[in-house]
Amino acid sequence: MRLFVALLGFFVVVLAAPSLSGQLGRLIKNDDFKMPPPGELVFGGHKAYQGVFPFYVYVLLYMEIGSSPCGGSLLTPRHVLTAAHCNMQPFTNESIVIMGLDNIKKDPSKTPGVQQKKVVSIVKHKDFGKPRSFSNDIAILTLAEPFDLTNYVQLINIPIDDSELQKQYWATVCGFETYKFDGNSVVHSDHLLYAYIPLIDFDKCFKRWPINDKTEICAGSNGTGAGPGDSGGPLFMPRGGKNWQIGLVSYASGALAEITNQADNPAIYTRLSFHCQWLNENTDGQFKCGNAK
Q1: pLDDT by residue (tens digit) across 219-238?
Q2: What is the CATH number of the domain that holds 244?
Q3: Domain that holds residue 198
């Protein structure tokens, strides 16, 4: 039996990419991301500067036993998109989400541009875990009060149809936590990191995982991809001056040798275009998917 694991924690591998400093508070455009040379794909992590990914949400769900750090993205000022498996137990009223943060060691209350809000409720897809363990791995957090939209806090876009975006082949993931492995141990990062990863076609991915191509996306390569540390984090692409999220981190192999070779053992992402109606209904009609032109 193959071992697989939800990527509670996520973020693993990145490449040595050009610095994004000086790009605070603006959307990444198509020509900001180039296909990286294969030789630049390394473990280690490339830091993202504050404001480069203003739609990214750091999610901290506190439960009776421990806490669940995850990633997310901002749908509306009061709604955060994340993975359903991030909340496997009832959470406490200490649960929070943070935006505008580029280093988790910083005090959010003392860091300019950073906002923190309390989570009051969560809606998980009613078919989460059906027919397979991580099917429909999607959830929406509702906040006690809305975020103020600023240069460091912005909404994400989700396409009604992602078929043209997927032809771009390279996508980006961002998040905290894992940036390398030390033996069998995970080494975490305090900094927000980002990575370029290639999408993997359905036929190849299906040889490894029994996925549904309507509801899931595969991505990763040998030496780069998703790992323990930030489930629920965004998989996105730039188009037309906007960032379009096509997936969110769901699960991958739990074996170290496989998680570092995602060309043959891809990570799986919930495909968001399939869930556009669900997103609209569970934000009281406030969020609508758009046309990625």
Answers
A1: 987 777 766 667 899 999 99
A2: 2.40.10.10
A3: 162-273
